[in-house]
Amino acid sequence: MATETKSKNPMEVVKRVGNRMHDSQAMNSIFRPGSVFRKGYTDSPRNRSYVIMNNVLYHLHPVKVKIHAVKVSYTLCLGGLSFFLFMVLTVTGVFLMFFYRPTAEQAWADIQTLETAVYFGSFVRNMHRWAAHLMVLSVFLHMARVFYHGAYKAPREFNWVIGIILLTLTLLLSFTGYLLPWDQLALWAVTVGTNMMGYSPVLRTNVQFVLLGGNVISGDTLLRWYVLHVFLLPFVIVIFMAIHFWRVRKDGGISGPL
Amino acid sequence: MGEIPEHLLKRAAERKAQLAAEAGGAGASEDASAGSEETTGSERTAGAEAASTDAPVAPVEEAPVRTGLAAKVPEFLFQRSKNRRAVLSGGTPTSSGAGSGGSSAPAAGAPPAGAPAMVGPDGHTHRLLTVVKSGSIQQTKAEAQDKVHTWPHLLSIELGAMLVVTAGLLVFSIFVRAPLLGLADMNQTPNPSKAPWYFLGLQELLTMFHPMVAGVTIPGVALVLLALTPYYDKNLSNKPENRKYAIAMMTIFLIFWAVLVIIGSFFRGQGFNFVFPMKDGVFFEL
Questions:
Q1: Together in a domain, B275 and B210
Q2: Which structural domains are found in chain A, ordered by start?
Q3: Interchain pair B203, A192: CB under 8 A
Q4: What is the per-residue pLDDT across B95-139, written as a single tens digit (0 to 9) for each?
Q5: How far apart are CA A253 and CA A245, in angstroms?
Q6: A2 in helix, strand or coil?
Q7: Which of A105, B133, B175, B207 has its CA 20 to 30 A from that of B61?
Q8: B205 and B162, same structural domain?
C-alpha cells in the first residue's frame, strides 16, 4: 500500500495495535532479546533452543535432555507433578486463607461459611484437600522411583538427602494443615499424632509443649500450626525445592538409563 | 562396555554404501566419459584423481566432471595446481583457469598490480596448506544424537501430565467432598481416633510397641537410614540385576509400611480393634 490510510476495520485495528505493542519498549523489556515472543517462532533447532534459553524454565531444564529422560515410563513425571501439586496447593490455599481465621471460636464456623456461602468455596477446599493427599502420595512414589533406578548414587547422594527432607516437610505440611478445619477429625487425628512426640528422648514432653503451645491442643495450637502451615513450612520447603532442582541439573540431569 | 550407539552404526553403514557405490561407479563413469568425448576422455578420468595431469594438451573449455571426493574440491584449486605444475615444469600456465574456476580465483601468473605487502615469490597472497578428505577431520555437525530438545519433546509431556492431573483433580473435587465433622470437642473422643492415613502405619506400630519405640525410635531410625542410603550403599551399578539386595530391602520396607497403613486404615475399628471392612464397615476418613 503506497498510501497508508488507517482502516477502521476491527481486524485491522487489532492487528495495528498488536504490531505497536510488539515493537514497544515495554514488550522488549519483558522478553529477552532472543525470546520467541519477540522474534516469532518457526520450528527450527535454533528456535527450539531459544525457547528454553530465553525462558525462566531455563532454571529447571537444559536446552537438551537425554533421550531416555523424556520417556514417561522412566520418571512417570512424579517429581514434576509433586511440584505442580505444590503450586496448586499454594493457589487454592491462598483462596482458603481469605475466608479463614485461625482461632478456636471462628475456624470451624469459617469453614462452614466457606462451604455454604462462598462461590466455589466447597470446590476449592475439596481441591486443596485432595491435592494435598495426592502430593504426599506422589512425593512418596517419586522417592520409590528414584530408589529403584539407583538414581541416588554418586554424584546424586546429597540430592537424595534433600529429597528425604522434602518428603518429611511434605508430611509436616500435610499434618499441620490437618488440624486447621478444627473439627473432630482434625482435633483427634492430631491428638493421636502429637501424643507420640511426648516420648521423644531427652527432650521429652518439651517437644510436644512447643508444638502445641501448651500441654494439650487448644486455640494456641491452632494459631501455631496455622503459621507453620501457611508461612514457615512453605518457606522452608521452597528453599529446599530450589536446592533440589538446582542439584538435579548440576549433577548432570536425570540419572542414566538402566 | 555397552553396545555401539545406533548413530555410529548408521554412519558406518552409510559410508560403506557410499564407498561401494563409488567403486562401482568409477568404472562406469570412465566408460561413459570415454564414449562421449574421445579427445579429453582419458584426461578427465585422471582429473578425477585430484588433477594429476601434466601440462594441458589443449585449453579446457569447461570444467571436467569430477566424481566422489574430488567433486567437493573447488574447481579453481585444481586449475591453480595445474598451472603451478606447468610453471615448475617450464611451460606457460593456461589462462582459462580464471574462466573455468570462477573470477574470484587469483591468477597464478605475475603478481597483480597493487598487491598487498605479504606476497609470496610467485605473487600469491594466500597459500593453501592442505586439502583433506571431508570426514577425515572432526565433524562438529554430526554429534552424538542421544539428546533431544527440551522444547518440544519434554515440555509437551510435562504439559500433558499437568493437564491430566488437573483434570482428574477437578473432576474428583467436584464429586467428592472433603470431610468436615462436627466442631472440635475436647470432651468427646471419637471411637476410633485415627491419625492421618500416612501416619497410620505408626499408629499401627503403637499397638505392638511402647510409644517411644513406635512413635519416635522406629520412624526416626527409618528416616535417617533412608536419608543415608547413598552413603552405605557402595554398589556403583544402577542396573536392577546388579542390586538385587538393595531392591529386595527397599521393596520389603515399602510393602511393610503399605501393609501397616492399609491395616490401620481399613482393618481397625472401635477401640482400634481388628475388624473386617466388608463385615464391620470402614472406620476411615481422609
A1: yes
A2: 67-250 (1.20.810.10)
A3: yes
A4: 544 444 444 444 444 444 554 567 777 777 888 888 887 777 666
A5: 9
A6: coil
A7: B133
A8: no
